[in-house]
């Protein structure tokens, strides 16, 4: 009895789920149909707007081309008039130019002659300046060589004189070294054994100072 009851309940549950599934599927189909219809309407609307936009752009393009053509025609007309005016002015200018060119030609010929004369004068002056500069350089060179020669001779004489004096001092020193100088020191008094040796001591001191300076 329980088994039959259970089977019955299972069939009822199954039927109920199946019914729910069918209902859900039906709703889904209806929703998809509505969506498709909506998309179709949107696409038709988009196509319509696209066509209208295309028509509008074509009309605008046509108007723009017509306007550009009018502007171009007006420009060409003004350009033609301007060219004619420029041609007339060109003829006038050509005549004036030829006249000015002749004047300029005469002026250039005169300037070229003056330029040649000036260049010749400058060349002559430059040559004279070069000669004067060379003369001064040679004179300075001779004076410099003379001064160097005199300076070298003077230095040579001074070296020889110094060498001679140094030799005399050396000989004097040798003589003084051979002389014995003795000092006798007592409280409050200094005396030399030989009074004649005092001049020798002075000479030695002077000689040492001279040698130190040199």
UniProtKB/TrEMBL annotation:
Sequence ranges of Basic and acidic residues compositional bias: 1-177
Region (Disordered): 1-180
Superkingdom: Eukaryota
Name recorded for this polypeptide: Interferon-induced very large GTPase 1-like protein
């Amino acid at each position: 009895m329980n088994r039959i009851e259970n089977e019955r309940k299972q069939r009822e549950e199954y039927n109920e789920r199946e019914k729910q599934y069918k209902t859900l599927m039906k709703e889904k189909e209806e929703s998809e149909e509505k969506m498709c219809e909506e998309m179709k309407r949107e696409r038709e609307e988009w196509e319509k707007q696209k066509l209208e936009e295309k028509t509008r752009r074509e009309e605008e393009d046509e108007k723009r081309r017509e306007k550009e053509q009018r502007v171009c025609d007006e420009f060409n007309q003004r350009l033609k008039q301007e060219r004619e005016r420029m041609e007339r002015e060109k003829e006038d200018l050509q005549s004036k130019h030829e006249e000015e060119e002749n004047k300029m030609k005469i002026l250039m010929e005169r300037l070229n002659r003056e330029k040649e004369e000036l260049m010749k004068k400058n060349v002559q002056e430059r040559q004279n300046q070069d000669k004067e500069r060379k003369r001064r350089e040679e004179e300075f060179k001779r004076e410099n060589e003379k001064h160097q020669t005199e300076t070298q001779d003077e230095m040579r004489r001074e070296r020889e004189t110094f060498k001679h004096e140094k030799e005399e001092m050396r000989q004097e020193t040798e003589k003084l070294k051979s002389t014995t100088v003795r000092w006798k020191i007592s409280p409050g008094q200094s005396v030399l054994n030989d009074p004649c040796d005092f001049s020798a001591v002075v000479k030695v001191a002077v000689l040492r100072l001279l040698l130190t300076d040199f």
